[in-house]
Batch of 2 targets.
Target 1
Amino acid sequence: MDIILELFECRIDNSKFFIELLTLYLSHCDISGLCHILGFKFQFYHDGSESKTPTELYKITALLLREKILQLDDIYLHLIPKDDVISELHKKKMVAVTDEARKLNVVSLVDTEGQEDKENVSQKDDTQEIDNQKAGLCLALLEIGAWEEASGIMDRLPPFALLDEDSIAKSLCYVIHSTIDPLYRRYGFKIFTERLSSIFVAMQKFTCETCLK
C-alpha cells in the first residue's frame, strides 16, 4: 500500500490508473490500512521541521476523498493544527487587519509607534509560516472541484477561518465562476440582448413622439 501511494505521489498525472488500482487493492483488505499510512505521512510533518507538507500528498488525499475511497473523518484527525488553534489564529489575523485599517487613517509622528508596527508585522509573518494541513487539503479539494469535501472542512471551523488564505479565496472564486459561467453563457447573453432591444425600442418611440410634437 505504501509503495502504491509513493508512486501515486510521483505520478499525479496518471491519477485514473492509481484510483482504479487502489480500489481493486482495497476490495481485498480493510480501509484502515490506507487511513493509517496516509495519517502517518501527514504526521511526519508535525515535528515543526523546516520541511512543509508536500503538495503531492494533499493532491492524492483530495483525489481519494473526491472518489469516496476515503471519508473526511478518516484523515481529519491526523491534520494540524487543531481546530481551536486555527480559530485563535483567525481571530488574531482579524484583529491585526482591523488595527492596520484603523492606522491607515492616522498619521503617526512617534518613532515608538513605528517600532510597534514592525513588531506586529513580524507577528503576522510568524502566524503565516504555520503548516496548516487543513488549509492545504481544502485548497487541493477546491482545485479539483471537490466542493462537497472542501466545504466539509470549512464547516468544521469558524466562518471564513480558511478564507483569509489568498490561495483558498481565489480557488473558491474560480469554483463559483466555473459553476455560474455555463448558465451565464446559456441564458445571460440572451437576457442581455432582450433587455437591450427593449431599450432601443423605447428610445425610438421616445424620439418619434418628440419629433411629432
Target 2
Amino acid sequence: MTADELAEEFRKAQYVSTDQEIKTFAQITSEDGRREFLAKFWAEIESGRMGRAGILRSVYLQRTLTADQRFHALGRAGWRTDRGRVYVLYAEPDEIERFPSSQDTKPYETWHYYSIENGVDFIFVDRSGFGEYVLVHSTKRGSFRIPIGRVSSNNRTPAGLRGSTHRCRIGYFDDRSADSWSISASVAHHDQSQDGCMSRISAKSCRPAEGG
C-alpha cells in the first residue's frame, strides 16, 4: 500500500481511534512510518480497548465498504454518513423499522440492536428528503459527543424511549467534529393496543444551534 492508501485506511478507522492517535498519524509522512503505526494501531483495536470489544481489521474495513455501497447519499461516502458510522461500529442491526414520510413528518428509520447493553436503538431522519438519514437519537450509552435536543411525548414511543418526556443527546457527526443541530422530535407514546411502535419525528425544525 502507498502512503496515501495507508492514510485513507486510517481515515476510515477514525471511529475507533483517539484524538491523540489522529494527531500523531498526521505528523507521519513516510510510507514505512505509517505502515508501522497502523500495525500497532490495529493490534490494539483487534485485542479490544477502552471498554470496546476487539474487532478485526479485515472485518472493520469490510464494513466500511458495505456502508459505502448501502448508505452513500448526496455525494457523501457511505461510511461517513450517520447510518454508515453506526453500521461500521456495531454491524448489522437485529431489526430495522422504516417509516415513510407523511404530511407533517419526514421519513425515518429505527435500528434495534438487542445484544448491546440489553438493547439499544438508533433513530435516523431523512431531513433533506434526498436519502441522507441523520441520527437524531440513540439510547446507546456514551455513543456520541453531540448537542442536547428535546424529545417530547405524545402518543406512542419507539422501543427504548417509552416514558413521558425525555431529554436526549442528538446530532450529526462529520469527521469527528459535530455539526450542531437543534432538532425537535415529536414522539408518541406506546399504544399497547397496536402492534409494534411508531414515532412521529418532525425534522422541519432542524436548525443550526447557537454556540455549537
